[in-house]
């Protein structure tokens, strides 16, 4: 209590409203500041992920190009003209096929001497290949490799080679070459922000092809301060000293010695201007909130006093008239208090009526429970048997009472009564088929029909169809009224099949009394029970008037 008094001393409602305005505003400002910091961090993290993904996407584009070149080399390597040494035919067919792809094929022997080059007419004298290092590396590894970018001796342009080593003679290797400028068409910055560049870098760290504002030409060494940091398969490089206010993403082209890189400026909204706006706007809002809270407090204080005066006079037993205030909700409270003063006597009469009904229904339930226990006492051979039987029947009766209570004893739908009692055995829920047109039962019918259904289901679970997985129960009701007769009749059928063989019991117990004599008497009808070997058949024919609520 002392702690509460410390934090909430006695004060006017105006003081509390002003304090509440300030207490709400300050955490909001702190939260917004935290959100701004988190937003900045999230923007940077998202940009890093996108940069790495864009570099990976570019690497896949270049990988497809290199794979296509490798596939072309494999196809050409198995060419019959090449195997038969018909280099002229091989040159003509290859040059025609690759004319539109800006690709050229070179065949060399083990010394690197060019045997043919589709950049030149067949028969033109040719020297050794310009990139012996790449040829020797491919011959040593025995697999297809991409070379570093180099100045081609035949073309005079910056080119790169993809080399396929062969074991046959005299062609020791097939090389497919392309100008680096032609590869540039695949290196795109489309989808990147303004000021971003992209490049393909070979194993030695030179630019093969690039595009963007950086304007790097083929053969240009890439920044040696950055390359040693690009060690993993893909990632992001960030260093304010090397790339101020910039970000670089990179990805290794899988299966090749090249890398793709993209880099550009970090474009983020100015957090500083947002901070200024937050501080200036926050101070202004707090001042406005304090003034508004003070004005509201004065109005609320007057309203509360008027309502309190009404409540005091009502507590003294007076009939009060509603006061008029400027607060709509307070006016509603005033009207409610005024109506309550008029309704008090009626409420007391209703309470007396409810108490009378409660006593009446309690006596009926106790009479039913008494009769049930007397019957069970006659047929039980031990206290334990009597206790279990009483508990089981009371459980079924409780379900009916709970249903009626939920509907304020105004009746319950037949289907709901059936569901509550039959689905109380969840292990047998899929074994019971229920059908019939629904209607609302009278309160006494809810209890009596519930007792009968509980007995039928309990017996079936213990001895009948519901005691085995393959057993089935069909429970249905339908109108069987005869034409021309005023009294409507309903027929309820409980039919079991698929259970253990049924034999008629030697003596009638309380359960038989409930499903036969009690059911027939309660609904002014007839009950037929047939203990058929394939399953119990129970049929109740009752007057609809004893069941349906008017």
Notes on the protein architecture:
By secondary structure, this protein is α+β, with helices and mostly antiparallel strands. Helices cover 48% and strands 18% of the residues. It has helices spanning 2-7, 13-77, 80-83, 87-97, 132-141, 180-183, 271-315, 328-379, 383-406, 414-422, 443-462, 510-522, and strands at residues 103-108, 114-117, 145-146, 150-151, 158-165, 173-179, 197-201, 207-211, 234-237, 246-252, 259-265, 412-413, 432-435, 440-441, 472-479, 489-497, 526-532, 535-543. Strands 1, 2, 3, 4, 5 and 6 form a six-stranded antiparallel β-sheet that branches. A five-stranded antiparallel β-sheet has the order 8-7-11-10-9. The radius of gyration is 47 Å and the shape is flat. The mean pLDDT is 80.
**Uncertain spans, ≥5 residues at pLDDT below 50?**
none
Class from helix and strand fractions: alpha+beta
Q: What's the Cα radius of gyration?
A: 47 Å
Count of separate DSSP helical elements? 12
The shape, in one word, is flat
Measured by DSSP, the beta-strand proportion falls in 15-25%
Largest sheet: 6 strands, antiparallel
Determine the N-to-C terminus distance.
58 Å
Number of DSSP-assigned strands: 18
Helical content band: 40-55%
What is the string of helix and strand elements? HHHHEEHEEEEHEEEEEHHHEHEEHEEHEE
Integer average pLDDT? 80
Transmembrane segments: 16-39, 277-297
Protein name: histidine kinase
GO molecular function: kinase activity
EC number: 2.7.13.3
